[in-house]
Each structure stands twice: as C-alpha cells, then as structure tokens.
Design brief:
Helix content: 55-70%
Pfam families: Transposase_mut
GO molecular function: DNA binding; transposase activity
Order of helices and strands: HHHHHHHH
Family: Belongs to the transposase mutator family.
Distance between the termini: 30 Å
InterPro entries: Transposase_mutator
Organism: Microlunatus endophyticus
Number of domains: 2
C-alpha cells in the first residue's frame, strides 16, 4: 500500500476552506470506512459531485490516489484502524532502536529477541496503563490473526 490513508485525508483539507472542514470530514468518512471498494466508489462519486466543483484539486487528489487507496479496503475495519497511519509502527521502531542502542551488543540472537520482546510488552503509548493499551489492540490482533493466519502462529504453538 503506497498511500498512507491519513495523509490522503489530511491533504484533502489542505485544498478546502477551513469553514467546510467539518462537512468535508463528515462526507469523507463513508469513503474510507466503506465495507467494499464498490461501496467506497459510490460514496466517493457522491463526495465528488458535492465538493468537486468548489474544490477540483480535492477530486484530482482522490482520483490520482484511488488505485493505491482501494487495497486499504481489503482489510478488516480493526486492521484499518492500525494501518491508516504509520505512527504506531514508527513509534515501536523508535523504541526498539533506543533499547538496542542502550544495550550496545548482544551475546546471541535470543538475547536480542528477548530485549525486543520486553520492549514490546512494556508499551504504553498514552501513559494510561498497559491494560488499557492491550484492550485497544486486542480487536486488531484478532483481525490480524484471522487475516494472516498463515503468517501468525496459533496460540497452542507458543
């Protein structure tokens, strides 16, 4: 997926008058939350009809990004919430780099993996506690486990 969805949405507002942002946001949501590409296209056509004359650059932006956007719709809604932005992944990678830099070296691969495992287990991005963070990610984790069953080991295997 080449287009980060949150950037596509943010760029939409770059071309619009601020006084219409709430209305545009309301009209955009059915596009990126649509259950199928066909439904998203239908919603987009309605959006383009309503906003395309006043803001042709928005229509061009979405037209140009459409082929990169529609693979996003192939994922479960819970997965979409995670992948619509790269922030969570970038944050995790930054934490991994910090942990590796602090350690300096590892005697073996197992100790490196243990360090990364412990960093992952200690995540608390909002400062509200591990339990709340875990609850937020459980639906996405379940969707990932079903969607990518061939890549994720079953619970019994661990």
């Amino acid at each position: 997926m080449g287009t980060v969805i949150i950037h596509l949405i943010r760029n939409t507002f770059r071309y619009a008058s601020k006084k219409y942002w709430d209305k545009i946001s309301f009209d955009l949501k059915p596009i990126y939350t649509a259950p199928t590409p066909a439904e998203a296209r239908r919603c987009y056509e309605e959006f383009a009809e309503k906003w395309g004359r006043a803001y042709p650059a928005i229509k061009r932006l979405w037209d140009n990004a459409w082929e990169e956007f529609i693979p996003f719709l192939d994922y479960d809604v819970e997965i979409r919430k995670v992948i619509c932005s790269t922030n969570a992944i970038e944050s995790l990678n930054a934490r991994y780099r910090r942990a590796v830099r602090a350690r300096g070296h590892f005697p073996n691969e197992q100790s490196a993996m243990k360090t990364l495992y412990l960093v992952t287990r200690s995540l608390d991005p909002k400062g509200t506690g591990q339990r709340r963070w875990g609850m937020r990610w459980k639906p996405a984790l379940n969707a990932f486990a079903i969607t990518f069953a061939d890549r994720m080991p079953a619970a019994e295997d661990q």
